[in-house]
Amino acid sequence: MADTGVVETLLQRLEKVDGGVDSLNVASSLGTDHQVIVGAVKSLQALGEIISAELRSSKHWELTEEGSDIAQQGSQEARVFCSIPLDGVAQSELMKLSFGKIGFSKAMSNKWIRVDKGHESGPRIFRAVENIEDQVREKLLLVQKGNTSQVDEKDRNELKKRKLLSEVTVKSYWITKGPSFSTTITKQETELTPEMIATGSWKEKKFKPYNFEALGVAPECGHLHPLMKVRTQFRQIFLEMGFTEMPTNNFIESSFWNFDSLFQPQQHPARDQHDTFFMSDPALAREFPQQYLERVKKVHSEGGFGSQGYKYDWKIEEAQKNILRTHTTAVSARMLYKLAQQEKFTPVKYFSIDRVFRNETLDATHLAEFHQIEGVVADYGLTLGDLMGILHQFFTKLGITKLRFKPAYNPYTEPSMEVFSYHEGLKKWVEVGNSGVFRPEMLLPMGLPEDVSVIAWGLSLERPTMIKYGINNIRELVGHKVNLQMVYDSPICRLES
Q1: Predicted TM-score (pTM) of this structure
Q2: How many CA atoms lie within 13 A of 210 on its CB side?
Q3: What phi, psi does 324 have (nearest 5°)?
Q4: Which helix (H) or strand (E) holds 468?
Q5: Does residue 415 have a cis bond before it (omega within 30 degrees)?
Q6: Please, what sign has the CA dihedral across residues 438, 439, 441, 447?
Q7: Which residues contact 493 (CB under 8 A, 6 or more apart)?
Q8: Where are the strands (E) in 381-488, listed by range?
Q9: pLDDT per position in the chain (497 positions), as tens?
Q10: Phi-psi region for residue 59, left (φ > 0), alpha (ψ -120 to 50) or beta?
Q11: If you write DSSP's letter for every residue of 69-90 in order, what string do you get?
């Protein structure tokens, strides 16, 4: 409730007039802040139809802080003129004054001063006229006194350009008597108590009406992280498209399944410690499908299946090294090998969404630990066109339509493509994934039929989430710098199916 004294004074003033009063005028006459009067108006409106208040807005000109200073001391150009003695002053000395630079420029434009660049002691400034009229100050004084109409619009705009004047929009209330106007305020009851019912006093009481449009207090509850919301939506889209989820519960993977089975040579830079996290315990894997391992070894070192291989000495010791998996394609390799062991091949569509680990340099778009979304389709006669079509269908379901494909190189896919999406926050194209058609050197050693093609793609979960939620730095989405209020405030879902 507003100050009772202010409320009563406002009602008494309103009683004495036939029409109404302006809240600004009331505040001015009482010598109080306008917001105090606005508070009194709101309080009276909450009590019913005691008053009527119409919000009005008006514009007027006010002096800025710099404008008020000039109205008191004079414009910069006038002060520069007054600072120049009859025998002139060195330009360097004049520029040391706080108003020197602006005042010099304006005084030169007004032809009040002149510069003697050939003076023996350096550039020297002299008065060019005997007297001046400080029109800038005079116009500001007119505005200050409330005579803005006497200043031309052109002059007002010029003063505004110099940041000496500002046009201010003032909002006020036009207050009139309401149907239930009274100078005495009766407190409205907010609760019907048992005592009121028992005594019958409720009949004489005035109750405050319920506000059925008021929002209730939000219940305390947990909130899903945006990353988990988008993950759920990705998963739902895969299931709608007929994909089966792959088991991805093994963060630790052998180099064989992570690299060698994908036809990635053992000297590849990605297998270096600068890019991969190696395990110290257990350091080595021991169990492999021996016949499949021998075929992988042969295709690497000697070639086969129409390929000449890499022609190097393939070592089981390198394949045994345990690592934190660098991609979920290792899971895809295991699933495709399992598929190849069936008596009769059946087309499949697999997907997975889980964490992978890479020894990356942290920046706005890279983390050492992130989520990878992977899709794999195995069928007869699949082409790159099928892959592009699936990717367009997939991202359209996410509401991301700005896609670009760029030719790329991967050891285990040919042809290969990088997938880019436009990030409105970063104002640039951001890579969101990689894709391609698995090479025969990877598929045929597994035992898959020669006429079966497998298209696959790996996408980041974090970057599409950043695009959808307008987050520019991945460290604000994942990690210790996450703003928990962002998790609380974020919508239930931002994606459109």
Answers
A1: 0.55
A2: 6
A3: -80, 125
A4: helix 462-469
A5: yes
A6: positive
A7: 229, 233
A8: 403-410, 413-423, 428-438, 452-460
A9: 456 788 888 888 888 888 888 888 888 888 888 888 888 888 888 777 888 888 888 888 888 899 899 889 999 899 989 998 888 888 888 888 888 888 898 889 889 999 988 888 888 999 988 889 999 999 989 888 888 888 888 888 888 888 899 888 888 888 888 887 888 777 777 888 999 899 999 888 878 777 788 888 877 777 788 888 888 988 999 999 999 999 988 899 999 999 889 888 888 887 776 678 888 888 888 888 889 899 999 999 888 888 888 888 888 888 889 989 988 899 999 999 999 998 888 999 999 999 888 877 767 666 778 888 999 999 998 988 899 899 888 888 877 778 889 999 888 898 999 988 887 777 888 787 789 999 999 999 998 988 899 999 888 888 778 777 777 777 777 777 777 777 777 655 444 44
A10: beta
A11: HHHHH--HHHHHHHHS-TT-EE
Q: How do 124-127 and 113-116 pair as beta strands?
A: antiparallel
What are the angstrom distances between the C-alpha of 252 and each of 325, 352, 405? Answer: 6, 16, 31
DSSP 412: T
**Closest of 165, 114, 96 to residue 136, by C-alpha:** 165
3-state SS assignment for residue 33: coil
How many CA atoms lie less than 13 Å away from 188 in the CB half-sphere? 14
| Total number of residues shown for the chain | 497
3-state DSSP call for residue 286?
Answer: coil
Coil/strand/helix, residue 279: coil
Q: Are 418 and 344 in contact (CB under 8 A)?
A: no
In the structure encoding, which two tokens stand for residue 311, read together? Answer: 């022609």
> Do the beta carbons of residue 324 and residue 357 sit within 8 Å?
yes
C-alpha 160/C-alpha 152 separation (Å) is 12
Distance CA 113, CA 130 (A): 10
